Amino acid sequence: MFQFAVESYRSCSPAASCFSEMAESKPGLRKPVFIKVDQLRPGTSGHTLTVKVVDSKMVLQKGRPDGPQVRQMRIAECLVGDETGMIVFTARNEQVDLMKPGITVILRNARIDMFKGSMRLAVDKWGRVEVTDPADFTVKEDNNLSLVEYELVNVVEE
């Protein structure tokens, strides 16, 4: 296999771009798989969801408001949901500005964090929060996944 790699490398002339051939054979980005809120489970990540913002509440604002944006830290807890249920989304810094009640957003590469035994949805620097066209669903408010309390249990195998 090493010989093949060396031979194929040598077959490329300096003027020809071997790197472009390798880039063309590389598969493109995969299509996102959108899931519903009721499919979220503790400890999972990489989720893509379309949700509506039901409520938003600022819980932390550190730094001077007139200071540079880099030094200011803001955290808001937002209640988001779709037609299957609701969950608390923790918005950080510039995400806080996007999370206004009634707005529909797409959460890409979201993960589930556990806070005091309950699930919280979050998007870190590897994910993205995008405002999108208003969705035509109504949020199912009687199924709040953040109200379900989980307990970590150690199982001892004998």
Arithmetic mean of pLDDT: 78
Number of domains: 1
Strand order of the largest sheet: 1-2-3-5-4
The CATH class turns out to be: Mainly Beta
Distance between the termini: 45 Å
Strand pairing plus helix content: what structural class?
alpha+beta
CATH topology: OB fold (Dihydrolipoamide Acetyltransferase, E2P)
Q: What is the radius of gyration computed over CA atoms, rounded to a whole number of angstroms?
A: 22 Å
Explain this structure to me?
The chain has 158 residues and is of the alpha+beta class. The chain has one domain: Beta Barrel (OB fold (Dihydrolipoamide Acetyltransferase, E2P)). 15% of the residues lie in helices and 36% in strands. It has three helices and six strands, in the order ααβββαβββ. It has helices at 2-11, 18-25, 94-98, and strands spanning 45-62, 73-82, 85-92, 104-115, 118-122, 128-131. The chain has a five-stranded mixed β-barrel with strand order 1-2-3-5-4. The longest helix has 10 residues, at 2-11. It is globular, with a radius of gyration of 22 Å. The protein starts with a helix and ends in a 27-residue tail after the last strand. Pfam families: OB_Ssb-like. Residues 40-131 form the Single-stranded DNA binding protein Ssb-like OB fold domain. InterPro entries: NA-bd_OB-fold (IPR012340), OB_Ssb-like (IPR048970).
